[in-house]
Amino acid sequence: MASTIGLGADGRPVIGIIGGSGVYDIPGLSDIGWRRINSPFGDPSDELMFGRLGDLQLVFLPRHGRGHVHAPSDLNYRANIDAMKRAGVTEILSVSAVGSLKEDLAPGTFVIVDDFIDRTFAREKSFFTKGCVAHVSVGHPVCPRMGDAVEAAGARIGLSMHRGGTYIAMEGPQFSTLAESRLYRSWGASVIGMTNMPEAKLAREAELCYATVAMVTDFDSWHPEHDKVTVDQVIKVLLGNADNARTLVREVAPLLGARRETCHAGCHTALDYALITAPEKRDPALLAKLDAVAGRVLGA
Ligand SMILES: CSC[C@H]1O[C@H](OP(=O)(O)O)[C@H](O)[C@@H]1O
Ligand SMILES: Nc1ncnc2[nH]cnc12
Prior knowledge:
Layout lengths: L14 E5 L10 E6 L12 E6 L2 E7 L14 H10 L4 E10 L9 E3 L2 E4 L25 H13 L4 E3 L2 E4 L8 H9 L4 E3 L2 H10 L3 E10 L12 H27 L26 H6 L1 H8 L2
Helix pairs in contact: 2-5
């Protein structure tokens, strides 16, 4: 019998969208309702918006809250991912604004990121802390199946897309210095942002597929002809591309929704060999909090 791990109650995927800067809703869905989902890890950024696209269930979370009230370092990434999992989400597509670290990734380009460098340092990065330690693999932090779907959807609607690229996650909220920007370029990173880590790592811990589509809004600080990033410049490019991002989401959802089996890349079984704390030493209070994230392996 086919495994139903990683599918929703109706045997279909439930698509979660985390909208970044400039993406605070997804128009065009039916049966829309905003609902607060409580998480034992704290407050998610906002209520979650539930809606349908045909026969598919979508769940949307504005990463910074409606009205962009939360800074990257203040986001409760654990609560956001836990709430998505509690809402039944099986895969997360992140939409993010980024600076470009490469000449050929001009503002307006959509990059289907396939790797990350995590330079953040002031955030909770794991669900698995004292009393239930786990180490998941993030060697391939992005779900390749989702990347294929985003690429196909982008081609269908004629978006300027680039498949592959490393996203460097910085702490922020200030943009990079010239020396930092040059350093990241020397490391071969393609784009820079402040939010996708630890989000992607936590999604993996929660056994959710994760992919990000990064909208280039600026050339960060390294470019001799564009040597300063400003929010108004970022917003201008964002507003010009937000509709494209929303169209992309509506186009990619049915492709993701076609799956009827557990993700072949292993995202939905990431915890199979990850727990290391001896069962008799596990902290019952932490185990209770992990009911959604790790219920499959903890038997909750
Ligand atoms: C408004 S520019 C800086 C801001 O935009 C990006 O956020 P997101 O990934 O949520 O689109 C970047 O990481 C910063 O948080
Ligand atoms: N240059 C940049 N650095 C970090 N985050 C960003 N988001 C958009 N542009 C950015």
